[in-house]
Amino acid sequence: MTGLKLIAMAWRNLWRQRRRTILTLVSIAFGFFLAILMTAMQDRSFADFIDTAARLGSGHVTLQHPDYKDKPTLSNTVIGTDAMRAAAEQDGDVVSAVERTVGQTMVSTASDSFGALFIAYDPALESADTMVWTEGLVAGELFVEADDDGILLGKILAENLGAEIGDKIVFTMTDRTGEIVTDMERVRGIVSTGAPSLDAGLVLLPIDTVRNVVGYDPTESTQVAVFLGDGRRSMDAAARLRGELGDQGVSVLTWDEIQPEIRAFIAMKVGGARVFEIVIGLLVAAGIFNTMFMSVMERSREFGIMMAIGYSPRQLFSLVMAESAMLAILGLGLGALVTIGPYTYLSNNGIDMTEMYAAQGGVEIQGVGFDMVLNIGIFPENAVAIAAAVVIATVVAGIWPAWKAGRVNPVEAINLA
Length: 417
Fold this sequence. Notes:
Blueprint: H1 3-14, H2 18-58, E1 61-64, E2 78-79, H3 81-88, E3 94-108, E4 113-121, E5 137-140, E6 151-154, H4 155-161, E7 168-174, E8 180-191, H5 196-199, E9 202-206, H6 207-214, E10 220-221, E11 223-228, H7 234-245, E12 251-254, H8 255-258, H9 260-298, H10 300-308, H11 313-348, E13 351-352, E14 364-365, E15 368-369, E16 373-374, H12 380-397, H13 399-406, H14 410-414
Parallel strand pairs: 4-9, 6-8
Antiparallel strand pairs: 1-11, 1-12, 2-10, 3-4, 3-7, 3-11, 5-8, 6-9, 7-8, 13-16, 14-15
């Protein structure tokens, strides 16, 4: 039996039980649909979440003093940040590198005082790709230069202080030698990051203002935040930067080393989703196996006659495997047709969950807020992996029925009533 004749016969056999074949194809398509949408939600939401975490402070890769991770004080700094940024930006995966000084401060008005996290940055180096707060300006204006006047407050912190645009704020911190230093600025703007706990304790300052207050050199800061086009490349980029900057006494850390809680959260969620996808795959494979096995059992007499007139066990095995492969290809095609519409809509428009979480002010994990519009987007390699898994599961489910078809005893099968 030639290849074309085998394919034609497999096609006819597939549609002899039209209803069963259609149900099997629907189950394959539905499994593909669920796997694609679930994976796409994870890929896009967690990629955006990691990017947001990076934009809130430390980047996808962070260059800092070796002791800063364990002792995050303003005395553990890196000097020569301009040269570090230039070296980082030579890497092909790096989009930009910016210098920031991060630490603790006490902010006070005439009536109240609160502890807060401050981030000092150079507005000339930053953009919407590196700063979350550019998209969350509630009132006032952002800094334009590294030595601008003013202070920016998180929305909830401003409310707690009773501070409005133009009000005086005194901030207190320890300088590089451990001495307490203070300065006064007027509120220039109020920002919201989407994370209530962060908005309740966030202060933004121009980097040169902080350098003057704590006594830093012009190219000194607590870190250089490096931003990548794809956060998944952080380990590779960090390894290259270690080789480039390792002899300068600089610690090069990836985002998940800086924020292990976020890494653990994402790993837990992804692991749970993978288990769910495996369960779906097993259920679909069981349905395919049942279809193929019933088809073989119903045609035992037919297979016996075919063997009696000269068909070999190998040919019968190939015939049933061809039917299984056709089911896989047709199911995958149907799944793609069913998926493309919802995927395109959710990718472009997303699901707005603002009203759902309005009462709690948003959703956050470890001080990083989730976007309230849930868009989807799947990494190409994951889409290929899901398509391959569908085909493999379908074909594998047909191996045992195909083997049974090739093991039919012609005499016994022909004598079946």
